[in-house]
Amino acid sequence: MADTVAVRTGGEQDDPEPGGFAFEERPRLLEGVRAYGLIMAMWVRSTMAYRASFAMTALGDFAVTAFDFVTILLMFTHVDALGGYTLPEIALLYGLSATAFGLCDLLLGSMDRVGRRVRDGTLDTLLVRPVPVLAQVAADRFALRRLGRITQGLLVLGYALLSLDIAWTPLKVLMLPMMVVSGAAIFGAVFVAGAAFQFVAQDASEVQNSFTYGGTTLLQYPPTIFAKDLVRGVTFVVPLAFVSWLPALYVLGREYPVDLPQWVAFLPPLVAAVCWVLAGLAWRAGLRAYRSTGS
């Protein structure tokens, strides 16, 4: 795919095209961001045309996701600690992973529809438009109601921060927004890689969901309750542990589950960048292998 897109302008250029028009090169990344913003704004306007419906669906998202934390609360009516972690400590893990995933789900939650578009051929309509396909797929049916999930995660995170007795330092304070942003980016890379896999296995949305929705559920609990092989898998294979486990354990002053050095707590931004490079390569490979429906 070309690295730039051509946009007609009325200004004079050195080598005008026939007919009096010239073409200005615009970076493809900026064009993708612009297209994403325009599509997102369209869906937001559509949503806000029915504000009562939006409020009810957002509240529904809030309530449904809140049941996950209610389950944890019910556990603590019978135990004082889970895997050696107290309720506020688990609330911190829960709040960080839920907020990071909620942000990613809001921005990229439509990526699991790629397989459906491949099957019914509607992906072809995106290919003929002069903007990146990834931006179009990501912004399609932008669901503002997913703010309910983010709100619920932030409330649990607020409870954890008020309840925990942490020796705060400027570095630990800065790590909180870093964890949320980097965690959302890591989940986003998994969304894109999963969508790329759907070019090959068209009914693979549930496989993707097992790493995204399943991954955030996994991270809501302390790593000490899981087998070490599973912890190694989400650290070195699909690095979901960098969303909350590893940096949060530094904030809490706890030991890492697989004897990792302390400095790995500061790697989430780097891990997110590497994940996005790999996800981008997978997406480009999947898009190039696409051969339409043949109809």
Provide tags for this entry.
single chain, 295 residues, mainly alpha, two-stranded antiparallel ribbon, 12 helices, globular, disordered N terminus
Structure description:
With 295 residues, the chain is mainly α. Helices cover 63% and strands 4% of the residues. The protein has twelve helices and two strands, in the order E-E-H-H-H-H-H-H-H-H-H-H-H-H. The protein has a two-stranded antiparallel sheet with strand order 1-2. Mean pLDDT is 87; it is low at 1-24. It has helices at 28-48, 51-75, 87-108, 114-120, 123-127, 133-139, 147-163, 170-197, 205-219, 228-237, 245-252, 268-289, and strands spanning 4-9, 22-27. The protein is globular.
- Main beta sheet: 2 strands, antiparallel
What percent of residues are in strands? Answer: under 5%
The average pLDDT score comes to 87
User: Would you tell me the structural class of the helices and strands?
Assistant: mainly alpha
Low-confidence region ranges: 1-24
Secondary-structure element series: EEHHHHHHHHHHHH
Number of strands: 2
Specify the overall morphology. Answer: globular
